[in-house]
Design brief:
Blueprint lengths: L2 H16 L11 H13 L3 H14 L6 H15 L3 H14 L6 H14 L9 H16 L6 H28 L3 H14 L4 H14 L7 H14 L4 H6 L16
């Protein structure tokens, strides 16, 4: 590092040290504090922005039009600092306090997103995924015409796939240990609770494999599940392999005409 570069670094550090700290209390009005906090937010100065917007959420009257925005931007500062639980709670507060505001549906959606960010892998505790699901469903119920509807439905499908994945991994663990009865309990729940996921298809395939195993040899059960699989996935190769040689269930005899 050259002498000139070192002097530049020292000068910049000195200027930064001399710069006045961001103090929300020094602003003469809530409007000026709001503008300054928003400017800090745009520059990703999360701590300054959070301090400003938090003060505004406490000081603004419930009728002030800046209050919903203050909650919104405070939530965004929490997201910027990876404080996703605090962000989710702040978005929820906005939606609960200002249900008629145009920001309410966005707030519920973002609350769900913030909760979902805390569930980082399907194998982990799904608590935050369940909280996200509640927020998304509430958004669709309260604001069925929201522009965020498609995004919300997509997020719900993604969560369902994760819930199904978690159950499938548990069931598959039992399956690999040949504890087929326990495995089938999980696989059936997946088919019942998450029928639109890819794991529902895989769960039925695993059920057929369990039923056809020498330990179980439940031929009729295998026939029933294969009939469903063939109906839902007629061209699926995995289904073809799992159900190869499994005959269709016998048709019920026709009832005589009265």
């Amino acid at each position: 590092m050259t002498l000139r570069t070192r002097l530049s670094v020292v000068l910049l550090a000195a200027l930064a040290a001399c710069a006045p700290a961001f103090k929300p209390s020094r602003f003469s009005s809530n409007e000026k504090l709001f503008e300054a906090s928003l400017e800090r937010l745009k520059k990703k100065k999360w701590d300054d922005a959070a301090a400003g917007f938090e003060k505004l959420t406490l000081d603004l009257s419930s009728r002030d039009t800046l209050l919903p925005l203050a909650h919104l931007y405070l939530a965004r500062t929490h997201t910027g600092r990876s404080e996703h639980l605090l962000a989710a709670q702040e978005y929820s507060k906005l939606a609960e306090s200002f249900g008629d505001d145009s920001l309410a549906d966005d707030a519920l959606f973002e609350s769900g997103k913030s909760y979902s960010r805390l569930w980082v892998r399907p194998a982990l505790d799904p608590q935050y995924g369940q909280l996200a699901q509640v927020q998304y469903r509430l958004m669709l119920t309260l604001y069925p015409d929201s522009p965020r509807k498609k995004d919300t439905e997509a997020e719900l499908l993604r969560l369902e796939e994760w819930f199904a994945t978690k159950d499938f991994e548990t069931g598959d663990g039992y399956f690999r240990r040949k504890a087929y009865d326990s495995a089938i309990i999980y696989f059936r729940d997946i088919v019942k609770n998450f029928p639109n996921t890819d794991k529902a298809r895989l769960a039925m395939i695993r059920m057929v494999q369990a039923y056809r195993s020498p330990l179980m040899n439940y031929k009729e059960d295998a026939k029933e599940v294969c009939a469903t699989l063939r109906s839902l996935y007629p061209t699926d190769k995995q289904v073809g392999v799992a159900c190869q040689g499994v005959a269709a269930p016998a048709a019920e005899p026709a009832k005589p005409a009265p």
